[in-house]
Q: What sequence folds into this?
């Protein structure tokens, strides 16, 4: 999976966590591993301009998605297997996200991961314009984020245990030549 990130926002974010969230969501949604995705982080002025130009809504927003190839997760049973594709672009505004994170008690990294997954789902055709769609999309978003965080915690726990074991084995002389 090719995920390109351009941070033009002036706000430092954990790009690796953002990429990991996107990779996780795309893998769970059975998107071809050779798919391409672009994530751009912009400032409030740029996001407000994009929001007005593409959505005809004033002021900045947190995330916008611009799909390229039409992709439907799971596809039709009689369709050929999907190949690599260009998913499109996700545009995030970390400054806007920071305000939302503060209001909800989340870290900026958690908010950016949530917005990244939200953007991925939009690229895959999910929307929240009507209540039934909103329920489906946000339910899936929450499920993906919870599973992503659980997996990250498990990886961190295993890394911590491996480092602890290496320290203990080194002190006991097992690692001496």
A:
């Amino acid at each position: 999976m090719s995920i390109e990130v351009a941070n033009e926002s002036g706000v430092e974010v954990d790009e690796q966590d953002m990429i990991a969230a996107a990779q996780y969501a795309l893998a769970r949604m059975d998107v071809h591993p050779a798919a391409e995705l672009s994530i751009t982080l912009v400032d409030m002025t740029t996001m407000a301009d994009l929001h007005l130009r593409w959505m005809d809504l004033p002021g900045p927003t947190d995330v916008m998605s611009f799909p390229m190839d039409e992709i439907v997760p799971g596809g039709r049973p009689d369709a050929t297997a999907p190949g690599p594709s260009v998913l499109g672009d996700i545009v995030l505004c970390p400054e806007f996200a920071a305000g939302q994170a503060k209001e909800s008690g989340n870290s900026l990294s958690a908010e950016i991961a949530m917005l990244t997954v939200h953007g991925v789902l939009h690229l895959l055709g999910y929307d929240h314009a009507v209540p039934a769609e909103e329920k489906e999309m946000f339910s899936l978003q929450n499920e993906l984020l919870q599973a992503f965080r659980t997996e990250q915690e498990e990886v961190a726990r295993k890394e911590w245990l491996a480092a602890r074991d290496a320290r203990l084995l080194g002190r006991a002389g097992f690692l001496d030549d």
The longest strand covers residues 86-92. The chain has one domain: 2-171. The mean pLDDT is 90. The helical segments are 15-28, 44-55, 94-104, 108-123, 131-171.
